[in-house]
Amino acid sequence: MLSSAASPWSFNLRHFAAVAAVVGRGSVSAAASTVHLTQPAVTQAIARVEAQLGLQLFERRTDGMTPLPPARALAARVEQALALIGSRRVTMAQMRAFLAVADAGSYAAAAAQTGLSQPTLHRAIGDLALILRRTLVERRGRGIALTEPGRRTARAFRLARAELEAGLSEALGEARQGPARIMIGAMPLSRARVLPLALARFTAAHPDVEIVIVEGSHGELAEPLRDGSIDFMVGALREPGPGPDLAQRALFEDRVIILARAGHPLTQAHDGTARITPPSLADLARYPWIVPSPGAPLRTGFEAMFRTAGLSPPIVPIECGSVMMVREILMQTDFLTLLSPDQVSVEQQAGWLVSLGEPPGNFARTIGITTRAQWRPAPAQAAFIAELERAATQPFASPYSPGSDQICGFEGAGAQEHP
Known about the structure:
It is built from 15 helices and 14 strands. It is α/β, with parallel strands linked by helices. It folds into three domains: 4-159, Winged helix-like DNA-binding domain superfamily/Winged helix DNA-binding domain (Arc Repressor Mutant, subunit A, Orthogonal Bundle), CATH 1.10.10.10; 179-253 and 366-392, D-Maltodextrin-Binding Protein, domain 2; 257-363, 3-Layer(aba) Sandwich (D-Maltodextrin-Binding Protein, domain 2), CATH 3.40.190.10. It has a five-stranded mixed sheet with strand order 6-5-7-14-8, sandwiched between helices. A three-stranded antiparallel sheet has the order 12-9-13. A two-stranded antiparallel ribbon has the order 1-2. 39% of the residues are buried.
């Protein structure tokens, strides 16, 4: 969420804990026993965080310290981060060192990326392993690898870092130095209409927020989401759900159509005139298809469509999930495919691709937002999600409607052709 100007790595984790303790316990004296610091040390820790942030967190009064809104916002995130870290003895330097090695894959690469020496990294991770009482890394030949406890620790630390970044962003508010940042995982079905529309509206209203789009499939984006590397995903939801650690929120229902190039043989009757009835499944099975790999929901529906009609699924010489590549191949060959109308609206308007109608069977897909189960959006993230929900209510204006030159509707395997 934050630029490097307000990175959590520049703060002391015990100072953060002191702020949270004063907010939670209501006084410096009570907080001191919680964080195992003296009262003067707690007071100094708060002053240090305030100086680094450049804003006041507490109102000093003769009867104590009253937390201001920035302190309450920061404290809530710090408490969540500390719960993820699992020990109040862990330092920010140890977290940074371990995540650097975990992300880089070696001490040498981590040293090059962080500017820390390899002995410093070794010492920090060794101390961290002792504090947490678990082996975090192990040697594999000439390199290293995270142990299973190490992988769990890395994920927890990434999520803790995300919480601290969100807390700093919320505390700074309008006084923030540098832009807030939203990391969005974009699956294919989000990129055609809903996400671009939400982006256009959001950036016009929030020009100070930096947005990073990470494209990929559900499988490619789920682990970065769990790690906190991205804030949320937008695209087709999974049934059943993706697991107890992730939560899904529906935006709208999407359907697919069968697509071919303009001038495809299936768009013409036997006498060469334009076809006025949709092709049968038997007709469709005579042509090659380009669809996603086995296991993808669209591939499963594609195969079931033919088997339900007693037909063998047609050959799939090309397995591909890239919409851009599918469209290009389609326009130059007699391949067929299944895509959302949103994904080919420009190509249909230009007359390059035509619809052969909707496929039989249940191809409806729920498009929505996937987040971590316990995730609490920061204000900028919540504002963007509101724009996504608004964009999802905008109806898709198809360039092809009944009465145009697209072949509308669909009949089953027994459909008869008419000149």
